[in-house]
From TrEMBL:
InterPro entries: Homeodomain-like_sf, HTH_AraC, HTH_AraC-typ_CS, Tscrpt_reg_HTH_AraC_N. This is AraC family transcriptional regulator. Keywords: DNA-binding, Transcription, Transcription regulation. Residues 189-287 form the HTH araC/xylS-type domain. The keyword Transcription regulation applies. One of its GO terms (molecular function) is DNA-binding transcription factor activity. PROSITE patterns: HTH_ARAC_FAMILY_1 (PS00041), HTH_ARAC_FAMILY_2 (PS01124).
Length: 294
């Protein structure tokens, strides 16, 4: 079976954690479920070969397991946790970067004109069952690791095949929007990048809407549909992630970290931090530093 061969290939090439296998391709093996971890998505397709994982984005919970894949089309704050992983049966997966320039090139092919169109803003994160064709393409890509002479010629061809299968599959609307310069995803992406770069500043939905050339109501609907969060909720997630990184460097300066990311009230910062990470800022920073020092 293709899934069995995929497990064998990932086991062969992945160390504990994520390992770069090819340009734009990661293989991963995780031997313990571990606690929920806050991180950011990338523009990626993540295929599970063994085990299971849960990803929370805003108010949406995405669960995917062996034989399923997740696509993410924006860099968004998420909470993830492997729910089925052990030394005897590690969670195994393959990640492929979704490159907008390759998707845009494929959209120029005449065959792309027969792909379905959607007017609504698709979600930035979605899960589907992997087709036999998709599994076969991913397996053939990993087989190239044993054929270094063929790899530079065939890997780009198989990448295009995988992307085409994703573009024409169940979550094709999410993937195709990556290649469209004026899509609803690209407009929301403009606002997402601005919020990330200016997370400590107050934001107004009207200003973000103007930036993306949408009316405030249309912008709010698109942002919510794509990210599963309002712009204010998204900004709060980014602020708390940035504060956490600051506290890892300066664990004793809780008030300073909160102020640096835009909080005027230390009590509000501590309250929202505890709600997000399950403990106080100071305790969380000390725990993270202990983990790094091991």
């Amino acid at each position: 079976m293709l899934l069995d061969e995929l497990r064998t290939l990932v086991t062969r090439y992945a160390r504990d954690g994520a390992t770069a296998a090819l340009d734009g391709v990661l293989v991963s093996a995780v031997t313990e479920p571990g606690p929920p971890t806050v991180s950011s998505t990338c523009t990626v397709m993540a295929l599970i070969a063994q085990g299971a994982k849960t990803l929370v984005l805003g108010d949406r919970v995405h669960e995917y397991r062996a034989g399923q894949y997740l696509v993410a089309s924006l860099d968004l704050p998420v909470t993830g946790q492997f729910t089925a992983a052990s030394p005897a049966a590690p969670a195994l997966g393959v990640g492929l970067a979704l490159r907008p320039e390759v998707i845009a090139e494929l959209l120029l092919h005449p065959a792309a004109g027969r792909l379905p169109r959607t007017a609504a803003a698709p979600p930035a994160v979605a899960v589907s069952d992997a087709s036999r064709e998709l599994l076969d393409a991913v397996v053939r890509m990993l087989r190239l690791l044993d054929r270094p002479r063929d790899l530079p010629v065939l890997a780009p061809m198989i990448e295009r095949e995988v992307l085409w299968l994703l573009m024409s599959g169940e979550q094709g609307a999410t993937v195709r929007q990556l290649g469209l310069a004026d899509s609803s995803l690209s407009r929301v992406g403009t606002a997402v990048r601005w919020i990330r770069d200016h997370h400590a500043e107050p934001i107004r939905v009207e200003d973000l809407a103007s930036m993306t050339h949408l009316s405030p109501s249309a912008f709010h609907r698109s942002f919510q549909a794509v990210t599963a969060m309002s712009p204010i909720q998204f900004q709060k997630q980014i602020r708390l992630q940035e504060a956490r990184m600051l506290l890892m460097a300066r664990p004793g300066d809780v008030a300073g970290a909160g102020h640096a990311v835009g909080y005027e009230s230390a009590s509000q910062f501590s309250r929202e931090y505890r709600r997000q990470f399950g403990t106080s800022p100071g305790r969380d920073a000390a725990r993270l530093r202990e983990m790094i020092a091991r």
